[in-house]
UniProtKB/TrEMBL annotation:
Pfam families: adh_short (PF00106), WW (PF00397). GO terms for molecular function: transcription coactivator activity. GO terms for cellular component: bicellular tight junction; Golgi apparatus; lysosome; nucleus. Gene3D superfamilies: 2.20.70.10, NAD(P)-binding Rossmann-like Domain (3.40.50.720). This is WW domain-containing oxidoreductase. It comes from the Eukaryota. InterPro entries: NAD(P)-bd_dom_sf, SDR_fam, WW_dom, WW_dom_sf, YAP1.
């Protein structure tokens, strides 16, 4: 896969690994196509799997899509001040199979609450859960809490409510998983400017992308540091 080659991982057993002489590219509207440099031709289907793919979601924060003088799409990473012809979203492509729609519902009786909320960020949201000390209520409260929500446990028994809170807090030991994944995952090498929650790429909130808010936060940080250093010197 091109994203893996970009990260320096040519030797892989993945079925998505391209044969020698092939290159993965994207169109302006996000469709993936494959260039065969040996035979000087292109095609929509992956040369090994026969699947068609498209990139998922918008470009990461700080990235911009441009077109060169030859009409080929390239990408500008304004944060790291570099350009590349590799679409940073290629690590997150999805299969496209319009001719074979599935009738299976997205979720069923075996689906867990954590699976439904995968990739979602509820930071800033308040969730009130009744009967949250056991059963469905507890699983609901835990799932929303682990996805950033401020959860209020409405329970009749305070002791059981406190016990439920302790059990949820024990789950936070896994909180470093996303940080470790972003730091160590080979498929993310060379990519930046993206937001991850629970090891899944998510769209940051509009506030998080505000240049005005970023400048204000930077100015506030500088002021607090200067005040701290000033108090220590005096």
């Amino acid at each position: 896969m091109a994203a893996l080659r970009y990260a320096g991982l040519d030797d892989t057993d993945s079925e998505d690994e391209l044969p020698p002489g092939w290159e993965e590219r994207t169109t302006k509207d996000g469709w993936v196509y494959y260039a065969n440099h040996t035979e000087e031709k292109t095609q929509w289907e992956h040369p090994k799997t026969g699947k068609r793919k498209r990139v998922a979601g918008d470009l990461p924060y700080g990235w911009e899509q441009e077109t060169d003088e030859n009409g080929q799409v390239f990408f500008v990473d304004h944060i790291n001040k570099r350009t590349t012809y590799l679409d940073p979203r290629l690590a997150f492509t999805v299969d496209d199979n319009p001719t074979k729609p599935t009738t299976r519902q997205r979720y069923d009786g075996s689906t867990t609450a954590m699976e439904i909320l995968q990739g979602r960020d509820f930071t800033g949201k308040v969730v009130v859960v009744t009967g949250a000390n056991s059963g469905i209520g507890f699983e609901t409260a835990k799932s929303f809490a682990l996805h950033g929500a401020h959860v209020i446990l409405a329970c009749r028994n305070m002791a059981r409510a406190n016990e439920a809170v302790s059990r949820i807090l024990e789950e936070w030991q896994q909180g470093a998983a996303t940080t470790v994944y972003c730091a160590a995952a080979p498929e993310l090498e060379g990519l930046g400017g993206m937001y991850f929650n629970n090891c899944c790429r998510c769209m940051p909130s509009p506030e998080a992308q505000s240049e005005e808010t970023a400048r204000a936060l930077w100015a506030l940080s500088e002021r607090l540091i200067q005040e701290r250093l000033g108090s220590q010197s005096s």
